[in-house]
Amino acid sequence: MRSTQEQDDEFRSSYPNYNVLDKWFSPDWDDQTRKVVRHRLEKVPPIRFFSETEAQTLAAVAERIMPQPDRTESGRIPIVPWIDEKLYEDQRDGYRYEKLPPQRQAWQKGLAAINETAGILFKGRRFVDLDAESQDAVLKRIQKGDPPGEIWKQLPSQSFFEHMLLKNVVKTYYMHPIAWNEIGYNGPSSPRGHVRIWEDGLDPWEAQEEARRR
Amino acid sequence: MTQQDQIMAGWSLSAPGIHGGRVPMRDWSREEVDVCVVGAGASGGVVGAKLAEAGFSVVILDAGPHWDPMSDFISDEHASTKLFWTDERITGGNDPVELGSNNSGRGVGGSTVHYSMVALRAHPHHFRRRTLEGSIEDADHRDWPLAFEDLEPYYEEVEEELQIAGPTFYPWGKPRRRRYPQREHELNASANVLVRGCAKLGIPVAPSPIATLSAPHEDRPPCVYRGFCNFGCTTNAKSSILVTYIPRAIRAGAEIRGNAMVARITHDSHGRATGVLHFRKGSDELFQQRAKSVIVAGYAIESPRLLLNSAGSLFPEGLANSSGRVGKYFMVQSSEQVYAKFTERINQYKAPPPGGAITEHFNRTMPGVGFVGGYTIEVIGPHPVDFVAKMATGRGLWGEGLRREMLDYNCFSGLGMVGAVMSNVNNEVKLHETEQDQYGLPVSHVIFSYHDNDKRLIKHAREKMTEILQAAGGEDVWSDHRMAHLFGTCRMGLDPDDSVVNVDCRAHDVPNLFICDGSVFPNSTGVNPSLTIQALAARTADRICDMARRGEL
């Protein structure tokens, strides 16, 4: 087990003192953007689409795809609630690969299939009960396209992994202000714009680096 | 006109003004109009505005809302998905096209409210590719039935209206007869990377022509380099159709009807179009809009879908489809992206995503490379949500490695290509056999596979972009597959048995039906298509005026 210090180092941001929300009342934030981001921060939706097992499985998968071991439960960026809301409201993406079923079915089948694969590879255990290394082994087989299991015969695993699991988890993570702080993203910018757009050029309200990582 | 006069004249509706508030607008819903335009985007806005100004009664319908830029556009990636066409489309073939965010718009202004504004003219040779390059095996390589010179005055007209900002001298294509209306934009860090890399390798590079203001124009302010162009411009600096041609159309007496999804085009027993049936938001009822002429401007998926959904006893295979070419010869442009990490901070979220620099050095058929056609190399500037999806899928990266790599988001710089692809009868848009959308209409089934020529062109472009990034000092180069821009499904041609519309975008089969958008392109050129689509729409409006004058409509 690695120490907390090691985990902190692994994800150490170059911008430890930057908080995009400090600009809330600045000319970078207009009313409609404040409304959207406030909702994102304060109104994390309840789970209404996934079953308890599905939600737990997805939470464990999301923790492997975008690990947050450095954060407490209340300080984590929520992932599952927003994917659940997308499916509860059936917000589509504008396209569906012909080999994939409609998104609700795909997610239900895919999460069941992850548990099936975990069981086959690891003596009947559920995905949530595996250690991180074993969980990664399951996900890698799915990403590679050769996971054992019956359900995957109706659902192309590579496509499900890349286009549904991976994209949704990572996009949900980086729509959150905590993620913007970590990477030094300027965040909303309306109506105020920028002047110093060249290399290493920084306007006064952009994220200042404390220590360059590279 | 006083408000009373406007009410007397039927100005009983209002539309969002581009600077807030509402502006009065005509209501044509109970009358037969001269022209009904389906789609208020790059082409529908242009052709509708010009015809309204020429004195025609015009209604322009769009499936999405009439945006108010000052309050509807949000400075946030995730919240901007409402700008895209997110109804289901099924995508297949060997190289399925990712649709939604990248290739569609929904709402007045269409995709021009979120496009990247690169405003290029096609080159004279793009219109004569079959003649110059010969036939290509397993492809249907085509000339256009019109020449660059037919469009040249319309490129100039549209560039003037959009106030394209570009350099005094632009080194590619036919030399310009007059300079760009506005001065070029400053280069951002990613554009400097392109310039630096090209300079090292001896590749010519130039400031890119972009459809956002570099100086005030009428009541619109210049661009302040917010960098949120792909999520809707809140300052009106961006010359989208929503803030240029749409206000012109309204002033000239057109009605812009948002939230109006057209289900089918109606016709009479003589085979002439009589109007459209459409759903309005909040109602299951089908409304009829009667019209003397119908112009379809829904882009290369919705336009053929509407024609196919408008089949009837006179037109069993779909309206205007006696040739069987509606939906066929679907094309995209290859738009592979390549990224590298730099020691400097790039901060790719700043300034318009095209950065301000471009090279069309490879936009020609080159000897000895093993493929025909060419491509442009442009700068890109994705924000984190878009960027992480590219990095995760492009590199197959996730877990601790992905989160660590994203900590360097501000140090990545990227280039993207816009490449010509071959026309091929097996690539098509058809109606899906079982799936329906929210209106109960069959959804589109889009089939696409790259030609070998396309694959060789993409490989060449990926290598060149990699060399440029490395010459500029970039490390850890990676790429992401991508396609952009849609064409070909109602192609233009001289032979009614082999094409859907003639050179005036008029349907061969239905004399008062026009199809005017990217779907009429017989080949995909090697430049971003918006300016060509707009120029073609401007020309079509003039041609319709000519035909009306001669009593030929």
How would you describe what is shown here?
The complex is a heterodimer of chains A (214) and B (553). Chain A is built from 8 helices and 1 strand. Chain A has a domain at 48-183. Helices cover 46% and strands 1% of the residues of chain A. The two termini of chain A are 27 Å apart. Chain B has 553 residues and is α/β, with parallel strands linked by helices. Chain B has a single domain (13-549), classed as FAD/NAD(P)-binding domain, CATH 3.50.50. Chain B contains 12 helices and 20 strands. In chain B, strands 3, 4, 7, 8, 9, 10 and 20 form a 7-stranded mixed sheet that branches. A 6-stranded antiparallel sheet of chain B has the order 6-13-14-15-12-18, with helices on both faces. Chain B has a 3-stranded mixed sheet with strand order 5-17-16, covered by helices on one side. In chain B, strand 3 (33-38), helix 2 and strand 4 form a beta-alpha-beta unit. In chain B, helix 2 runs parallel beside helix 12. The radius of gyration of chain B is 22 Å and the shape is globular.
